[in-house]
Fold this sequence. Notes:
Largest sheet of chain B: 5 strands, antiparallel
Number of helices of chain A: 8
Mean pLDDT of chain B: 81
Radius of gyration of chain B: 47 Å
Largest interface: A-B, 44 and 53 residues
Order of helices and strands of chain A: EHEHEHEHEHEEEEHEHHEE
Low-confidence stretches of chain B: 453-464
Strand order of the largest sheet of chain A: 2-1-3-4-5
Structural class of chain B: alpha+beta
Oligomer: heterodimer
Strand order of the largest sheet of chain B: 2-1-5-4-3
Helix content of chain A: 40-55%
Order of helices and strands of chain B: HHHEEHEEEHHHEHEEHEEHEE
Distance between the termini of chain A: 29 Å
Strand content of chain A: 15-25%
Helix content of chain B: 40-55%
Strand content of chain B: 15-25%
Mean pLDDT of chain A: 86
Amino acid sequence: MRVLVIEDEKKVAALVQTGLEEHGFQVETCHDGERAWNRINTTAFDALILDVMLPGRDGLSFLRKLRATGNTVPVLMLTARSDVRERIEGLNLGADDYVGKPFFIGELLARLRAVLRRRSGVGLTVLSCADLVVNLATREVRRGTTRIDLTRQEFALLECLLRIPAHVVSWAEIAQQVWNHQFDPGTNFVDAAIQRLRRKLDDPFSPRLIQTVRGVGYALQAEA
Amino acid sequence: MKLVLPIRVKLALASAGLSCAAVVCFAAGTLLNLYEDQIEAADEEIVAEARHVAQLYAVNPHPEDSLTRMEITAAKTWITFAVFDADGVFHKSDITLPDAVVEAANAQREPRTVRIPGGAWRVQAFTAGTRTVVVAHHLDEVDDIIHDLLSAYLISLPVFGVVIGWGGWMLAGRALAPVRAVTAAAAAINRQRIDRRVPTPPVDDEIGRLADVINAMLGRLENSLRQAERFAGDASHELRTPLTIMSGEIDAVLRRAHLEREDEDRLISVQEEIERLSRITENLLLLARLDAGAQGPASLARVDLSSLVSEACEDAQLLASTRRVTLDAIIAPGLSVRGNPDLLRRLVLNLLDNATKFNVAEGRVSCLLEERERQIVLKLTNTGPGIARDLQPHVFERFFRVDPARGRSGHGLGLALSREIARAHGGDLTLERSVPGATTVFQVVLPPSGTPKAPVTTGAGRPT
């Protein structure tokens, strides 16, 4: 999968590139609208990651121009986290989804995958790992044939761990994903939440799925 | 209780009062003058009459024998005389003068006014040769004139007062109409309509100048609000990018490098701080937006508050149990408000977070949601150290911490933000009471979704 990252902040672009490449994407970066426009017209990409805050508000006008010329390539916007207007405008102009800054690469990955899946017509409402099956639409969680009851928070936590296969999710990522900025979770709190989830999801079953990766975070995968 | 009267009424009363006072003075003056004049005229008549009588007696010592009374008194019914001998013996009078009158007259040589139950007289005694002539002028007519005039004044005064009062009230109304217009226009200008101005009356008088001054002030206010909005937007971008980069770089290192436990812990600690910065940034910027009135809940969506609070309490269970606090909730079903569910969730969770955090082990938190007197009320009670009396007025200030020494969790924006969210939704957040060592109660009131007065704006921040 070829992805073009259009982001004027070089460090951010580099981060995104590294993150995506680790998950098997082929990534190119451009730091302004002009160059990006040229690249698009010479190469076919499977997706664009576009910073709306390009210099001179180029981001949204770039998007407008893109769609006006009939280019339907999937676009994932990078926006300011709480600027609703920007988001709405972007979606109206034809972006597929958005990721608010600051973001974790895991989040960006998840949304990118979701966008690509939607485009390819494959809806994915069911996530699974070993004998764990999670239906995102019905919010049904099973291990094997046993139904497991989770609170909303626990479900959000599980979803966060599941959405990128074999991705280790850091506590900070979990904090932002599950609790947004509601309050100040801190690592201990995240630990406690993981313990609770383990008690419901792992303890009565085998194999253990929730792995602690020391220093990094947590991952959902079957024990080897 | 002080009675406050509207300006119109005060002006009307004042002008009526002043005019009536002026009229009263004028009336008193004219009445007095008139009376004096009448008395003077009477005195002149008395003198003339006295001379006439004296002449008669000078010519004929006993004129009564030959002349008719009419000749003597020249047919004036209001004036009469009495003649006395040198011995004081009454000699002649056409009508009987009361003794009191005569006595008074004889007491001095000056004209006097005598009032007795029968009537009033102006009387003077004259010496004519060996005789004393007392002439008396009946004052009934004078009194009548004065009385009539006084009555006329007394009757017309209240009427006059009312007419002037009404006139004053009308004029004041007309004069104050532009003031009322300016007041109403100014009141209608709030954050959402800050670009509006009050109407300037066509006349360049005091009110015109007032309107100009208000408009100039509104212009400055609009400017500073716009600047605040711009700041919020610019700062947001500037702060977020470095935070994203820092977070990403550290994440990358933690994933890839094989670090000593200690180094790992340090990096995780840095991550925590970045996350905290991120949170503070978001909250601060949200606060700035709410301040500027620009953020306003982005949607007028109907929010099922009962469900939202239920879920929040569910979520907060984990918070509570990690802090060894029991949380119980009584939530009336089916209550809804209009606004932004994310902001409302943040409000509720923040209060729950505080309630469990500023608590004691084995403490309690109670959450109550109900409709009371056509308002939706969320009441949070918790045990714990509470907030000291003198600090209570400050709890909603930004970056205010009740106990700076107490752990570094939180950053002092929670309550400020929660209150702004409540207010942006047409309600408010208050600290009902806090008894240190016992209970603390915070209360949120919100208008139910049926209420027409929904203060929210669209994301563009223009009229509702």
